[in-house]
Write a structure and sequence with these properties.
The chain is built from eight helices and nine strands. By secondary structure, the chain is of the alpha+beta class. A hairpin with a 5-residue loop joins strand 4 and strand 5. The longest helix has 73 residues.
Length: 369
């Protein structure tokens, strides 16, 4: 189906959930410890995310948002079964590239630190789980080592191909979130992907040895096409959250470069439909149908709009009929009252006239007599 199909990519095995959370601090600005005897730290203050340091790292070397973290991690179920294992895995901190529990806990680790992290289902893989190894609603226990932290690279210093690689990785992550019915998190990934896939101030970049080089037109065209793919996916996620105006802007970004993009036309038509602009929606969808006559999703949407349009026309007719009927009743009532007044006046003047004639007759009779 057009409306649900996103551009697929190879999914990473460690996505995250990203609800708004608050880290629990004491009056001195330090994380509260759930149990001072075994040195478990209750990160969120609700027992759903705990961390215990096994080996200290380099002091004051924690990552900040956007930094690239490289970790070694082993994830287990309560019975000790290993369900995840990663060596030298890198992700950008705060960009929903790993489960939320890991993202939050690693942000509180120093470089070289080894820690045990306990993550409740809500901040791991939730009610869906992750095939084939992770069931739904399970607590996961990780042994994690923060190997290194690197500051986020300036976009201007990246080549087009490097930006494509990073941007598409974030797009794939967004697709993963969308498949789990998490459109808000998908939107976060898509917006970050656009940061890397959008043009920089200068299309000149530098190679590793510092030699200036200009990207080819083919590379820039490929970057544009990837960016339009992300805008299309972003529009679909925005539709899910009923952010219609934002979704409309996203599809317009696509159609300004590719006026015959069927997905963008379909989504624009659907957005207009949901906004109640049925005639415009029908026009856009009819255009999409001419480009892809066999598309079932477009046919179905057109059929729904036709049915609604017929109902809208009938409602308008009924409304006008009622309005005209009321006006006629008012006019009839006015005419009746006017006629009554005229009749009353005629009768009154008739009586007055008769009286005058009778009086004149009496006077004349007297004079004649």
């Amino acid at each position: 189906m057009v409306e649900e199909k996103l551009d697929a990519g190879k999914s990473q095995a460690h996505p995250i959930e990203n609800d708004e959370v608050n880290v629990d601090m004491n009056s001195e600005g330090e994380l509260k410890k759930l149990n001072s005897e075994d040195e478990w730290i209750d990160i969120l203050g609700n027992g759903q995310l705990r961390k215990r340091v096994i080996k200290e790292g380099v002091k004051n070397s924690r990552p900040t948002r956007g930094d690239t973290c490289i970790i070694n991690a082993i994830g287990r179920l309560d019975d000790g079964t290993i369900v995840e294992q990663h060596e030298e895995f890198n992700f950008q901190q705060g960009d929903v590239e790993v489960i939320q529990g890991l993202d939050l806990a690693v942000a509180l680790m120093d470089v070289g630190e080894e820690a045990e992290i306990e993550i409740a289902s809500r901040f791991a893989y939730g009610t869906i789980g992750e095939k084939p190894n992770i069931p739904s609603n399970v607590t996961l226990r990780y042994n994690v080592k923060l190997v290194s932290v690197e500051m986020e690279t300036e976009l201007e210093s990246l080549t087009v191909n490097e930006r494509k690689r990073i941007g598409n990785r974030k797009r794939e992550r967004g697709n993963w979130w969308f498949s789990r019915n998490e459109p808000a998190l998908a939107m976060q990934c898509y917006r970050r992907a656009l940061d890397f896939l959008s043009p920089t101030k200068s299309e000149t970049s530098f190679s590793e040895d510092g030699v200036e080089k200009t990207e080819s037109d083919a590379d820039l065209q490929a970057l544009l096409e990837d960016r339009l793919t992300v805008y299309n996916n972003l529009a679909q996620a925005q539709l899910k959250t009923q952010a219609y105006e934002a979704a409309l802007k996203s599809v317009e970004n696509v159609l300004s470069c590719q006026p015959k993009n069927i997905k963008a036309l379909f989504r624009k038509g659907k957005i207009l439909h949901l906004k109640g602009e049925h005639s415009q929606a029908y026009s856009i969808l009819f255009q999409a149908q001419k480009l892809d006559p066999e598309n079932k999703a477009i046919q179905r949407e057109l059929s729904i709009i036709k049915e609604k349009s017929v109902k809208d026309v009938q409602k308008e007719k009924n409304m006008y009929r009622k309005m005209l009927g009321t006006k006629q009743e008012i006019d009839i009532d006015k005419n009746f009252k006017n006629e009554s007044k005229i009749k009353s006046s005629s009768i009154a003047w008739g009586l007055i006239g008769g009286t005058i004639v009778a009086t004149v007759g009496v006077i004349a009779y007297k004079f004649i007599s």
